[in-house]
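ESCALATION

Customer reports they have been waiting on this structure for their group meeting. Please prioritize. Original submission:
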Amino acid sequence: MKLFLPIVFLVTLFGTASAQDPQFSQFYANPLYHNPAFAGNNGESRVAFNYRNQWPALGANYQTYAASFDTYLEPGGGLLGAGLGVQAFHDSQGNFMRSNGVALQGALYTPLLARRNGLQIDLVGAGQVSYTSSLINPGGLTFVDQFVGGGFNPVSLDPLAQVGLAHNRANVSVGTVFEISNTDQQASFWVGGTLHNLSRSRLRNDVDQRRLGLQAGITLPLDNLYIGGQKGTGGEAERLRNISLTAYYRQQGPDRQLDAGINFLYDPIMLGVWYRGIPLRKFNQTSQRDALILMAGIQLANFPVQFQYSYDVTVSSLRWASGGAHEITIWYKLDGLWSLSSGRYQSAARQRRCIRF
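Update from on-call: job pushed to the front of the queue and completed.
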């Protein structure tokens, strides 16, 4: 009976609470997490690793890890392609809540206009199924009875400190991307949308609120410099120069956020400046300014690996006290090790040009 009421209290609290999904500053470098329609968008097989450490100076220990694999498949006729992906993630919110999950993505590529004079128009529809397990550990919290006589007792006798609470749930998400793709000498455009957590149910006490995402981008090529030799095994003998303008709006419950920025690519170097926030919007009298994001990336010469690093300069009321946020991404192109272009697999020429870095 001593544990019964605390358990009921925690279940009730958990059932009426709502949670926000983790966010990544390099959202285009973690495409499967944000839109299942990005599965296979690199035109070849790849693995990606993402790590984010948010507000380290506060000791809050907000850390998120993600690892994914995706590939592009195409039947012999080349009329209809498919992207397949899988992603696992771990999210730690302090020492009291941790979540682990896995998601499977499938995307169907429908060419509305086959490539003609370098122009191609595609519509991609996709779905995702995921499973997440979360654990609330009250032992990671501090209770009133630990503050005794001006001192601190590391052990709490509060019954709540002895109870852990697990919450498991399955979910469904959908996404789409419409793209007008040109050659590297012409501009390319894309727009996408996602709905996450569609199977959320209050009857199951799900805490994940539905998440709407809208993405759009344009790539403006600069003059290309052609060089001799080959780059990796993809046979690309050109050094790309372009500027990409991208925006990502998302809404989950009452929270709204907008990421907008510019990336400059001079192969193999990428530099970017982004802003996260809605400057003129306030929620509960709090400004929606969040962070200025500085990022840099490089692809190693003759090696199918890309590294990206970003740092969030906090511009909210936390400012420098938060320590900002660090984020690291590593992409590894598996087609750099063996050729998968025989019949079912498409070569690097099938890469989506708007978001290929």
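Sent to customer with the following note: The two ends are 58 Å apart (CA to CA).
Escalation resolved.
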